[in-house]
Every structure is written in structure tokens, then in C-alpha cells.
Amino acid sequence: MPGVKKQPVRAAKPVPIKRRDRERTRQEILDIAFEEFAENGLSGGNTDAIAARANITKRLIFYYFNSKEELFTAVLEMAYAEMRAAEEDLHLEALEPEAAIRRLAEFTFDFHQAHPQFVRLVSIENIHRGRHMAISRRLKEMTQPSISQIAKVLERGAACGAIRPGIDPVELHMTLNALSFFAVANRHTFEAQFAFDMSSPKARAQRRAEIADLLWRCVRGDRTAAV
Fold first, then answer.
1. Short-list 90, 200, 111, 110, CA closest to 153
2. Is residue 9 part of a domain?
3. Using CA atoms, how far apart are residues 204 and 13, in angstroms rounded to an integer?
4. pTM for the whole thing?
5. For 148-186, what is each residue's pLDDT tens digit?
6. Residue 10 domain flag
7. Which CATH number characterizes residue 33's domain?
8. Separation CA 109–CA 181 (nearest Å)
9. Which residues form the HTH tetR-type domain (predicted)?
10. CA 1 → CA 6, 7, 8, 9, 177, distances in Å?
């Protein structure tokens, strides 16, 4: 219309692209890398495959982790952190010595059964002679509360005569994990040799009870030996 001054058309402000949540992205990379490494090992684990599944560029992986080795170490730390956090929730200090030992044995067996990828990852790290765990201060630090928890149960039990004195908590931890780890790590070879289904509910329940009994018999003191 004559005399009407046209207002300049203002360009619409660009909608800001929402930044990725850095912690969420890092965690997503770790979760996918955990599955990739557990399935294919460190050497066979493919960062291209991890990037594709996470819908990110491979370059972004190396923004968070300096190398594939560093990513693998972070995956190990995450896997062990889950187990250690679950151990803290056992509250063994509230249980009598025998109940505490049995609870610890049952938990350890159940955790390995429920997390076969964790078992595979630990086996892979052993192939690499534990070199990633050796350089991780975080992994060493998170082990101490677990050993301390066992030591306190042993001390309480020894004080009341329920547990024999002088048991090394690290040795007991190793024995328990060896028993529980074998049932998952060696399941396929054992089944092939003996035609025994180790994954059936009946076999698992029997093995779980046996491990709890074995661990208690291993530590019980003179006061309870005849019971």
C-alpha cells in the first residue's frame, strides 16, 4: 500500500544445536566398547564398530580416550566398579560370621553367573598379562574395600571362635573367585568333556550351595568344626 513503509524481514535466529551430554556420550561409548571387547577381545575389538553403534565418529571416541588401550582400561574399570559397588551393598558387618561367609560366596557365584561378559573380559585381560590393570590406580583403589570387608568378617569370626585365626583375606578372595569364575569361564569345555549341563537351574543351584559350603568349611574354627 502507498505510504506504508515495509519493515525489514529479520532472519530467523538459528535454533541452537543441542550439545551432546558429555558424560552420557562417554558412558555410551564405554557400554558399547564393553560388549565389543568382551566379544572380540582387545585385538579384535573394532573402534569403527563402536563408533557406528554409538552413532558418532571414531574421532569422537579418541576425544574421550587417547587410545584404544586407554578405552579398554576404562572398560575394565567400569566392569570392576559395578562388582565392587554390589559388594558394598552386602552389609556383611550386620551378619553373623557363618552367614556373612555364605552370603559372600553366594553373591560372588551369582554375580559371575549373571555377568558372563565380565568373565570374558577378565579372561582377555589375563591373556594380556594384566598390563592394563597394573597401570590403573583406580582399579587398585577399588579393590581395598572388598578385601577390608572380608578381613573384618574374619576378624570378628576369629574373636568369637567361629572362624580359625590367621586366614589371609586375599587368599580367601582368590579361592572364592576361582570357584565361581570356573563355573562360567570353563563351562563350555567342561560340558564338552563330561556331557554335563552346567547352565541348568539345578546344576547352578547345586554348585552355588557347594561353593558356600566349601568356603565355610575352609574357614570355620574349632568351635564350629564339630557342628
1. 90
2. no
3. 62
4. 0.85
5. 999 999 999 999 999 999 999 999 999 999 999 999 999
6. no
7. 1.10.10.60
8. 8
9. 23-83
10. 9, 13, 15, 17, 87
